[in-house]
């Protein structure tokens, strides 16, 4: 007569790294209310969870976002990017930024690469993915083009 539903707030990826679905709350606020300019996630030091690294308040600069991406390491970022469509309309798109510094060791690069897809899939509404492996790749004009800016 009774149906029991077991609900877990944790999702585990193929890499063995898990994330708590509560991590999606700031993303939903960013997507629906434009509350944040960016969100940066990282894999915990014990390599078992994806955790929130930092939030950028609405209006935070692209330079601030870039400064939060560490040298010799990796991060996942969500960036609210203003674009101009082909029809000339101004709008914003959410871009998933994969930061994997060329100088990072192989282990974190592989861990971040193998954990990315499940997180990205959980972040519904992401327009595009942008890969950056050195500071020169962090170019707002290139990110805007990737987001569909004319």
From TrEMBL:
InterPro entries attached to this UniProt entry: ADF-H, ADF-H/Gelsolin-like_dom_sf, ADF/Cofilin
Domain of life: Eukaryota
Keywords: Actin-binding
Domain spans labelled ADF-H: 14-148
Keyword Transmembrane in annotation: no
Listed SUPFAM superfamilies: Actin depolymerizing proteins
One of the GO BP terms on file: actin filament depolymerization
Gene Ontology MF terms: actin binding
GO CC, alphabetical: actin cytoskeleton
One protein family per Pfam: Cofilin_ADF
Family of the protein in this entry: Belongs to the actin-binding proteins ADF family.
Protein name: ADF-H domain-containing protein
Source species of the chain: Strombidinopsis acuminata
């Amino acid at each position: 007569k009774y149906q029991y539903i077991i609900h877990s707030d944790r999702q585990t990826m193929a890499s063995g790294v898990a994330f708590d679905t509560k991590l999606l709350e700031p993303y939903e606020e960013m997507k629906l209310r434009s509350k944040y300019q960016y969100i940066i996630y990282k894999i915990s030091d014990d390599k078992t969870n994806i955790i929130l690294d930092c939030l950028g308040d609405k209006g935070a600069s692209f330079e601030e976002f870039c400064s939060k991406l560490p040298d010799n390491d990796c991060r996942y970022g969500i960036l609210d990017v203003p674009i101009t469509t082909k029809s000339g309309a101004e709008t914003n798109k959410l871009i998933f930024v994969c930061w994997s510094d060329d100088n990072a060791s192989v282990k974190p690069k592989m861990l971040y690469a193998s954990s990315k897809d499940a997180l990205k899939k959980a972040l519904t509404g992401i327009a595009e993915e942008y890969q950056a492996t050195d500071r020169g790749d962090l170019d707002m004009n290139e990110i805007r083009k990737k987001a569909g800016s004319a």
